[in-house]
Amino acid sequence: MSNAPRIFPAKERGAALLTVLLLVAVIAVLAAHGIDRLAGATKLASNSRELSQAKSYLIAAESIGMNAAEDIVSVSPGRTTNFGGWNGKEQSFPVPGGIINAALSDGGNCFNINGLVRGQQEIWTANQQGVAQFARLMELLDVPGGDAADIAASVTDWIDSDNIASPTGAEDQYYQQLEQPYRTANALISDVSEIRAVKGVTPQIFEALAPWLCALPEAALSPININTLRPEQAILLAVLSNNGPDLVRTRQFLASRPANGYADLNDFWAQPFVAGFEATSEVQAQTKLTTRWFRLDMSVQMQSAYVAERALVDAGRKPARLVHRQRGDAL
């Protein structure tokens, strides 16, 4: 019997080689896919860690902001001013792996959308002074007067406790007839974006209004601090007037404010310019010398994570407390 090695035909040798090469190719593809999946999982884990770290940094920044608000109030208990340039000034703090950007500003120098109503124990009725100021704000932002009055009435109906629409407003009956029906809140607004659901508030009108609005957790007229209101915020002072003062003159008046601010509200309202507002006692009482509400605008930038936050701080209590926070790209 011959022990000579078996010689495979050339066709069989070629098929075997092709099979081996095909197996190698398949294994290479699987290996590449596995490596890619592993790299993706590693990246996701890294991003998750950085996002978690960024949120932890924001919590730390909140604490720093609350302490800063307390310090500002305690330095001068009877008069909060812009001394030190803190109001709206952005500061950056390097941290391991990233950087925190934060700005503290007077959170009461805005139009409090919840000032459209008054009341207690969750029973809200229209505050006509707030309604008039809201309409005036929109007119100063070039919203036609008729539309401004209708929107002011509709937002008031959205908040108030009854289900009776004002002559130019809207209650459940209007919204229930829409293609996608819904109901009014009948409660204080927690975030100004809520008014986008109100009759008459178009995206263009909301975009114009949003920078000037806030939703303080109280049914009260906007607590404007005449000592911290910046000239570029002159429109918030102008809405207190029944005579529609010129915004340029209002800015000039704020720019000429005493360096240490006003020590007495009577001194402020005795100034010839604001005396021309013919403001009622209710309106005069809504102006303040001190600040209770502070706004924190913060962001954390990491290598592969970015988180932004806006928070509202109540410095009227000791210690100061965080009453609202919002995170997201909308900020």
What does this structure look like?
Keywords: Cell inner membrane, Cell membrane, Membrane, Protein transport, Transmembrane, Transmembrane helix, Transport. It is found in: Cell inner membrane. This is Type II secretion system protein K. This protein is an alpha+beta fold and 331 residues long. It has 10 helices and 9 strands. The strands form 3 sheets. It has a 5-stranded antiparallel β-sheet with strand order 1-2-7-8-9, covered by helices on one side. The chain has a two-stranded parallel ribbon with strand order 3-6. The protein has a two-stranded antiparallel sheet with strand order 4-5. Helix 2 crosses helix 3. It is extended and about 110 Å long. It starts with 9 loop residues before the first helix and ends with a strand.
Concise overview:
It is built from ten helices and nine strands. It is α+β, with helices and mostly antiparallel strands and 331 residues long. The strands form three sheets. The chain has a five-stranded antiparallel β-sheet, with helices on one face. Strands 3-6 form a two-stranded parallel sheet. The chain has a two-stranded antiparallel sheet with strand order 4-5.
